[in-house]
Amino acid sequence: MIPLDPENWSLMHGSLVFCACAAVIAVAGTRITRIVDQLADRTGIGEAAAGAVLLGASTSLGGSVLSVTAAWNGHAELAVSNALGGIAVQTFFLAVADMVYRRANLEHAAASVPNMMQNGLLICLLALILFAPYLPEYTIAGVHPVTPVLLGVYFYGIHLVRAANESPMWRPSVTRDTREDTPDDLATMPPLVRLWAEFLVLMSVLGLAGWTLEPAATVIAVKTNLSQTVVGVMLTAISTSIPELVTSIAAVRRGALTLAVGGIIGGNAFDTLFTAASDIAYREGSIYHAMPEDSKFWAVLTLLMSGVLMMGLIRRERHGIGQIGTESVVIMLLYVLGVVLLLAGG
């Protein structure tokens, strides 16, 4: 029997709760992919926009709740490392999805202006997070001025993504390997009200699982003497990012390639808001100035990985190294290098 109070948890209790929450996130994340794909067709917003807003936000909810809870409890290092580590591992997962799609490189087949817009937005948001620690440690009601800027840039960027989907100013060349976003048969889909209801229920499940993960992760960090950055990057970020891995592979198998790429990149952009929300929840000052060097390293690494992905989306290499894009190989190597350096540093 696991005690209700996390302060009384042993390492085994924390590990059991952690694994149970990760399993719930995986199951709920798998089912929500089909719901979002159908909502994209039912509402007409398109797979890229649905991936950015609906799939990205819903699959990231568990991680966002965890980061905010950690910040509220004064664990700034865990809050930031979970957010930034999640972006890095999700970019890595996109390379894994590229391996699943054997017909051509995913960057080539899922070429779309909205996905490139989302990636550009992500790069801007990461740059703002890295810029914040170099500004004065000034807060208004405990919130650093960069936080409302982050929120404003994100929502304006999503508006641009939606506009790029509806009225693109240019289009990528269409080849025999390009998979365009074409709606499925609406007559075979459940009613719109039912889809929204299922979507909200699954979102709630993901959020509750993320809220429960935070004390479990804290117990693991304390009992094993691991730093909160290691726990955030290697445990919570990966576990709360399981939906992105599952949903991207599920979307690829459904043929919804734009949704697969848009869900990952859109989720990454949404994940930067973890930091903004965590700054609001963190009551000891600016969370940006409480970021340890390891977290800044992961922000820089993620910025580099996002730049490589952007080049891949523009270059659109059809076949790379063993049916996986060259950029995907580079992204995987960068992530593995980051993990090695993190573990070597303790």
Structure summarized in a few sentences:
With 346 residues, this protein is mostly helical.
Query: Can you tell me the residue ranges where pLDDT is under 50 for at least 5 consecutive residues?
Result: none
Proportion of strand residues: under 5%
Integer-rounded radius of gyration: 19 Å
- Looking at CATH, the homologous superfamily is NCX, central ion-binding region
Helix and strand pattern: HHHHHHHHHHHHH
Total number of distinct structural domains: 1
CATH architecture: Up-down Bundle
Question: What is the arithmetic mean of pLDDT?
Answer: 79
| Main CATH class | Mainly Alpha
The largest pleated sheet is described as:
none
Which descriptor suits the 3D outline? globular
Per CATH, what is the topology?
A: A middle domain of Talin 1
Tally of DSSP β-strands: 0
SSE class: mainly alpha
Put simply, the count of helices is 13
**How far from one another are the termini?**
33 Å
Notes on the protein architecture:
The chain has 13 helices and no strands. It is an all-alpha fold and 346 residues long. It has one domain: Up-down Bundle (A middle domain of Talin 1). Helix 2 (47-59) packs antiparallel against helix 7. The model has no long low-confidence stretch (mean pLDDT 79).
